[in-house]
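Hey, quick one: can you model this chain's 3D structure?
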Amino acid sequence: MTNPQGHWLERGNEIERTVFFSDAVFAIAITLLALEIRLPDVADDPTALQEALIGLWPKFFSFLISFWFVGNYWVAHHRVFHYIRAYDRRLLLINLLFLMWIVLLPFSSSLLGEYGNQQIVAIIYALHVAVTGLSLSWVWWYASRDPRLMDTAQVDTREFRYNELRSLAVPLIFLFSIGVSFYSVSAAEYSWLLVFLIRAVLVRILGR
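Sure thing. Here's the predicted structure for all 208 residues.
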């Protein structure tokens, strides 16, 4: 559909195709995360097996933290598209950019699982997750500024602020961790866990 200004726009249930496609990309990315964890190839020796399993901890750590980051982005993406009622070409392209970073996360996750003690790897992973969050924030920002795409009048004021603040909080934490990595790589990686406190903090602040 083309509006009088020549702006390509479609309305109605077609927005569901974008959501279904995005969900499929998330499912593939999460599946690929698990493929990096392989059974240890050791002899029939309990001691060797135990050591090999302990050696898999970095890969389990990268899987667990990446799984929940992807899961949190899926929840956030679902929340954003709950309010989007139409789309245009630019919104689709911004959403594709976001999905590109999502589907590439298994690579960064495997890099973290293999070389997580190196600063450059922690920086790459942090930048990756931060850029992913900023891309999703762009989706929200772009759609919420166009009444043809999102009717912001239907969004509760506190929920609107929550969505905007949360979409920026995650990238800020990861960008902050890059600075921390110059002092301690382990501290930088553990600082990523602050992401899971964002919701509680924002709900408390906005609930006042």
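One thing worth noting: The chain has a mean pLDDT of 83.
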